[in-house]
């Protein structure tokens, strides 16, 4: 059956325990009448966040300093402001009523903080959650850069092996190719790869928020680190010669 085409899909998955965590925070103001006031609220919150994380950041840019720090690095987005106009109708007996336009302003900025120490992550996330103008958005679980490269290579090989096995199975069952002839007669002609690499979770706070700096019986936010997973799907076309 020369020229017989086989279209198959191979899949590969690899899981590794999380080694790093990226905490995403949002500093934001409520809607207030002044753009300057909204900006000040977020700027003050951002400065407080920096003060909290500073003792845990690397003392310099050397690899050893970064490896030993509880926080590898952090980044802050550009401060964004927005406004919204609300229409208010007022009753005035002399004029029969009037329309009033009120404009409110809000500001926000995001922090992405990369942790290598999960105990410090829980400790600081608890402090952040108690701050008035800060929200703990989510956490992304990651691997070290070296292990991330390794997991990609391993998963691609798994997907390729699965793809080839499927093509061989169909060649034997449908094209009557003997197992000894598979490598010589079944040839790949096309390959398309898709990857899915993601793992994140939302934090859980056991009790109500305490005000930042207030002592009490509040518990720390606890995170259950998730395995980092990589899934690779490979679509291939083979020709049976």
Could you characterize what this model shows?
The structure is a single chain. The protein has 2 domains: 1-19 and 144-241, Protein of unknown function (DUF541), domain 1 (Translation Initiation Factor IF3, 2-Layer Sandwich); 20-142, Alpha-Beta Plaits, CATH 3.30.70. By secondary structure, the protein is of the alpha+beta class. Strand 4 and strand 5 form a beta hairpin. The model is unreliable at 200-217 (pLDDT under 50). It is elongated and about 90 Å long. Helices cover 29% and strands 39% of the residues. Strands 2, 3, 4, 5, 6 and 8 form a 6-stranded antiparallel beta sheet that branches. The protein has helices spanning 35-53, 63-68, 118-129, 145-174, 182-185, and strands at residues 4-17, 20-28, 71-76, 80-90, 98-115, 134-142, 186-197, 200-201, 227-240. It contains 5 helices and 9 strands; from the N terminus they run E-E-H-H-E-E-E-H-E-H-H-E-E-E.
Topology:
Elements (H helix, E strand, L loop, with lengths): L3 E14 L2 E9 L6 H19 L9 H6 L2 E6 L3 E11 L7 E18 L2 H12 L4 E9 L2 H30 L7 H4 E12 L2 E2 L25 E14 L1
Antiparallel strand pairs: 1-9, 2-5, 2-6, 3-5, 4-5, 6-8, 7-9
């Amino acid at each position: 059956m020369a020229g017989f085409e086989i279209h198959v899909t191979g899949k590969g998955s690899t899981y590794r325990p999380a080694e790093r965590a990226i905490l995403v925070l949002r500093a934001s103001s409520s809607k207030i009448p002044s753009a300057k006031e909204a900006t000040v609220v977020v700027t003050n919150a951002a400065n407080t966040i920096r003060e909290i994380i500073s003792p845990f950041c690397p003392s310099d840019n050397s690899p050893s300093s970064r490896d030993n720090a509880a926080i590898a690095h952090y980044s802050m987005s550009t401060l964004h402001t927005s406004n919204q106009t609300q229409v208010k109708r007022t009753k005035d007996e002399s004029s029969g009523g009037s329309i009033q336009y009120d404009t409110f302003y809000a500001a926000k900025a995001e922090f992405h903080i990369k942790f290598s120490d999960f105990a410090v992550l829980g400790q600081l996330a608890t402090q952040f959650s108690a701050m008035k103008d800060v929200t703990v958005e989510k956490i992304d679980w990651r691997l070290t850069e070296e292990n991330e490269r390794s997991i990609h290579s391993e998963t691609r090989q798994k997907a390729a092996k699965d793809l080839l096995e499927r093509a061989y199975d169909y060649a034997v069952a449908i094209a009557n190719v003997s197992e000894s002839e598979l490598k010589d007669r079944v040839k790949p002609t096309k390959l398309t790869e898709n990857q899915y690499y993601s793992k994140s979770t939302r934090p859980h706070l056991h009790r109500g928020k305490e005000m930042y700096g207030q002592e009490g019986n509040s518990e720390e936010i606890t995170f259950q680190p998730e395995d980092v997973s990589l899934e690779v799907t490979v679509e291939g076309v083979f020709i049976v010669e």
